[in-house]
Design goal:
Family (chain B): Belongs to the binding-protein-dependent transport system permease family.
CATH class of the largest domain in chain B: Mainly Alpha
Keywords (chain B): Cell membrane, Membrane, Transmembrane, Transmembrane helix, Transport
Radius of gyration of chain B: 25 Å
Radius of gyration of chain A: 25 Å
Mean pLDDT of chain B: 86
Helix content of chain A: 25-40%
Shape of chain B: globular
Subcellular location (chain B): Cell membrane
Oligomer: heterodimer
CATH superfamily of the largest domain in chain B: MetI-like
Protein name (chain B): Oligopeptide ABC transporter permease
Structural class of chain A: alpha+beta
Pfam families (chain B): BPD_transp_1, BPD_transp_1_N
Chain lengths: 582, 312
């Protein structure tokens, strides 16, 4: 279907097929570039073990080599962005790059560090009730917006009310898994305010929720929208008036918008009213660059910081520049192959284990990352605090074991070498969005060796996810979103709703552990629970874990503090404010 | 023309809408409940035919919809980017035609000369080199090694130039993209002109002209050329939509803020209003181009005027 449509459009988009679109478009996308699949033999590269060292820094060897173009910008820091859309209002953009673009303008109440630990931002502290449903935030005293007006708990209340307005139609914040008390009466009834939001005094706000969710603290404690600036003319059910303000943001972060030049660059000026004091660097620019010329732009001094494709060549070139500080860092996500547990031939644990054993994952990672990736065995990214390999079964490539497991399920090799049972061949469809997906050739070969007919299909993302949600697949390749809480990647396996849990996996022990995992905010208790959960999930695997990956970013040595700044990370505003130019 | 546009709109609308999945289906952060709410808010839960008529009605009121991805009216969005693509395409068109015309005709008159052979070689190079390769090569050469041309974008980082200085700055940034695009399209056109000219040169009336003792220049430029470029009118008319469609890969490599990327993004994200508007615009321009070709033909070729008069 999709192929046909593309064919039809070939006239106008004659080159569309060649490009494989990168980058996410929903949620705050991290700017880390996806690695280029390289096929050179991994002879010289020794794989850096992700789980041991989370961040590797390579210092600049010759800072004097910094190009004049960069050195001339004594009061400007140039970072990069790829496809901003121009909606500079938190919660109302729909393009992940706009999410990156608003970060310098709007601080959050609470944000998280690289390991997923909450850290104070606009709120100096917070309290969570013992039942984990009521959140109290204490704002810093004398907070101001960039126009000098005070920022109070009223603004926070206004922000949360906007987001639960019946007309709120942007897709990037979702309160349906948190539910502030009284939302329903506000959304669908006559209530004029949401009863669960209580302003106690100008610096204290208390929010009562209805559902347990470890992300509530950061979701409720997100960016703050000024009631005085954005609330003028607000009526319940009518949010269209805000569109006029999309291009004119007014926030509380370290920088304020100066100018957006469509599709080219976003310019910011330091905010004198920032709570941490006016940032030392007067101007900030997010410049639009293409991934194919990121290195050239950096080399010639057009940019001060960027992320690059993860391969040995690029790394060597960056090292040769002399003025570049390089950081190799693990990205908080992982790749998986969904397995449709609802299919009769995949519902047995042994069948999924066989698919695990029968797949040469190390080879996939070698081809895909050339030393900058690692086989995933745990349902968490190595950066997450809950990550542990304790007692986790690792499914190392073992085709004989895979064969045995399948034979144990009653599959017998037919004359063509493909396994059969009751006259049915073991044929598995595999959906992916990337035509150059290295899993295709490797899995085809390794699965053929154990008698499984592997049939890949390349689709566009929307079609693929539609089929995932409808259960119309056997295997399907996907990456998780950027992970913040250990609950993020496992939550779905506890649900009975096929839209939430498209793998159709069900295991009472796992469901119980996942529920326990979010019922407390005590980290030690949670660690014990997740350790047990990871073991259970490895014994009875719902899906096939594939890889963890690294990213390479570099910054000009003239920027002090560049090692702490990652475009798109949650704590961007805090780190930006600390940067200095040498 | 109008019925054709209706037909196209119907076809495109249903093709897009019937593709499995919609704008929200790839956003895995949303709960099923929120997805339902969002689809209802954007009217995606209504029957297809109703949605088509809503779209049609809005178009008649000059409302081309609201981009889901960019959160702004589609017309505003397109207006922001399409002219960036237009100026590059227009300059490319000018250079391609000038160069192809000159080289094509010259090499046709000197068939099998060294020059002609070199041209043929160049033509094949132009046809076979991929745009990203030549683009990156030129960037490396002129942007990084020689340091004389910018790597990408339309303006220098943080530039605040205005007036003439701004125009010159943009022109400087246009050089590489135009070079790449011209190089890529000049090959086929040269070949076209060369063949057309060769064909005409073999015609009887050329022999007659030469036999009359006319100067070779007059034969070539007065008699042969005018006949040889006649079919090019059709070709030129077909370039019309190309002026507004953007060059996806080249724009991407040079970070040129053009419409090509917007279109590609809209396609991969299922941003229906943007897709519909852009596709309809290009369809309209194609039809318009055809129409213009007919008119121009009639103006340029007396034979067509004649048949029309006789017929009607």
């Amino acid at each position: 279907m999709k192929k046909k449509t593309i064919g039809l459009m070939a006239l106008m988009l004659s080159t569309v097929v060649v490009l494989s679109t990168s980058c996410t478009s929903n949620g705050t996308g991290s700017a880390s570039s996806s690695s280029a699949a390289s096929s050179s033999a991994a002879d010289s590269t020794q794989a850096v073990k992700l789980t041991d060292s989370k961040v590797e820094l390579i210092k600049a060897t010759d800072p004097g080599k910094s190009p004049d173009t960069a050195n001339k910008r004594t009061d400007t820091f140039v970072a990069t962005i790829h496809e901003p859309g121009g909606v500079f209002l938190p919660y109302f953009y729909d393009n992940g790059w706009d999410g990156n673009a608003v970060q310098p303008i709007f601080s959050s109440l609470v944000t998280v560090d690289d390991n997923g630990n909450p850290i104070p931002d606009l709120a100096e502290k917070w309290e969570i009730s013992p039942d984990n449903l009521t959140y109290t935030y204490y704002l810093r005293p004398n907070l101001k917006f960039s126009d000098g007006s005070p920022l109070t708990a009223e603004d926070v209340a206004f922000t949360l009310t906007l987001l639960n307005d019946p007309a709120y139609a942007a897709g990037n914040v979702d309160f349906s898994n948190i539910v502030i008390k009284g939302t329903d009466e506000y959304k669908n009834g006559n209530a004029t305010s949401i009863s669960g939001i209580k302003v106690i005094d100008p610096t204290t706000i208390q929010i009562t929720t209805e559902k347990l969710n470890p992300l509530s603290l950061t979701t409720l404690g997100g960016s703050v929208i000024s009631k005085a600036y954005y609330g003028n003319g607000y009526q319940k059910g009518k949010l269209d008036y805000l569109r006029d303000l999309y291009a004119k943001p007014m926030g509380d972060g370290p920088y304020q918008l100066d100018q957006y030049i469509n599709g080219q660059e976003i310019r910011y000026n330091a905010n004198p009213n920032y709570y941490g004091g006016k940032p030392s660097i007067e101007h900030l620019i997010f410049k639009v660059t293409s991934t194919s010329t990121a290195l050239q732009s950096f080399q010639t001094g057009q940019t001060d910081l960027d992320s690059f494709s993860t391969d040995q060549d690029t790394l060597e070139q960056l090292k040769a520049l002399g003025f570049a500080n390089i950081r190799i860092r693990t990205i908080p996500d992982f790749g998986i192959i969904y397995v449709n547990n609802k299919k009769p031939y995949l519902k047995d644990t042994a069948a999924r284990q066989a698919l695990y054993y029968g797949l040469d994952r190390q080879k996939i990672i070698d081809v895909k990352y050339n030393g900058y990736g690692e086989v995933a065995n745990v349902f968490a990214a190595p950066t997450l605090w809950s990550y542990t390999e304790e007692g986790v079964t690792k499914y190392n490539y073992d085709p004989d074991k895979a064969k045995q497991l399948l034979e144990g399920l009653g599959w017998k090799a037919g004359s063509d070498g493909i396994l059969q049972k009751d006259g049915q061949k073991l044929k598995l469809s595999y959906l992916t969005t990337k035509p150059d997906d290295p899993i295709i050739p490797i899995a085809k070969e390794s699965y053929k060796a154990i008698g499984v007919d592997f049939v890949p299909e390349v689709l566009d993302a929307n079609t693929m996810f539609d089929r995932l949600n409808k259960g119309d697949y056997d295997l399907l390749s996907v990456r998780t979103n950027g992970l913040i809480d250990p609950n993020d990647p496992v939550y779905e396996f506890s649900s009975t709703d096929p839209n939430v849990n498209p793998s159709g996996y069900s295991n009472p022990t796992v469901t119980q552990l996942i529920k326990e995992g979010i019922s407390t905010s005590d980290k030690t208790k949670r660690q014990t629970i997740y350790t047990k959960l990871y073991q259970e999930l490895s014994k009875d695997p719902p899906v096939i874990l594939i890889d963890y990956r690294k990213s390479i970013s570099a910054w000009n040595d003239r920027i002090i503090g560049g090692e702490n700044y990652t475009t798109g990370a949650s704590d961007v505003a805090i780190q930006l404010a600390k940067l200095k130019i040498r | 023309m109008i019925p054709i546009l209706f037909g196209i709109s119907l076809l495109i609308f249903f093709l897009f809408a019937l593709m499995p999945g919609d704008y929200f289906s790839s956003n895995r952060r949303l709960s099923p409940q929120r997805l339902e709410e969002l689809r209802a808010l954007y009217g995606m839960n209504k029957p297809l035919i109703v949605r088509y008529f809503i779209w049609l009605k809005n178009v008649f009121h000059g409302d081309f919809g609201f981009s889901l991805q960019h959160m702004q009216p589609v017309t505003t969005l397109i207006n922001q980017y399409i002219w960036n693509s237009f100026i590059v395409a227009l300059a490319t068109l000018f250079f391609t035609w000038t160069i192809a015309l000159v080289i094509g005709i010259y090499s046709a008159t000197k068939q099998y000369s060294i020059f002609d052979r070199l041209v043929t070689l160049g033509v094949f190079a132009s046809l076979s080199v991929p745009s990203f390769f030549i683009g990156l090569l030129l960037i490396k050469l002129f942007g990084v090694d020689l340091h004389i041309l910018p790597i990408g974008g339309m303006i220098d980082t943080g530039s605040t130039t205005t007036g003439l200085a701004y125009v010159l700055e943009v022109l400087r940034h246009m050089i590489l993209p135009i070079t790449v695009l011209t190089f890529l399209s000049v090959g086929s056109l040269t070949r076209y002109f060369r063949t057309g000219m060769l064909e005409v040169l073999r015609m009887d009336f050329i022999r007659t002209a030469r036999a009359k003792g006319l100067k070779e220049r007059t034969v070539i430029f007065r008699h042969a050329l005018r006949n040889a470029i006649l079919p090019a009118i059709t070709l030129l008319a077909f370039e019309l939509p190309g002026l507004f469609s953007g060059a996806i890969i080249t724009e991407q490599i040079f970070s040129w803020p053009g419409i090509g990327r917007i279109q590609l993004d809209a396609l991969s994200a299922r941003d229906y209003p943007v897709l519909m508007t852009l596709t309809m615009l290009l369809a309209f321009l194609t039809i318009l181009g055809n129409f213009l070709a007919d008119v121009l033909y009639a103006a340029a070729d007396p034979r067509i005027r004649l048949t029309k008069k006789e017929g009607g």
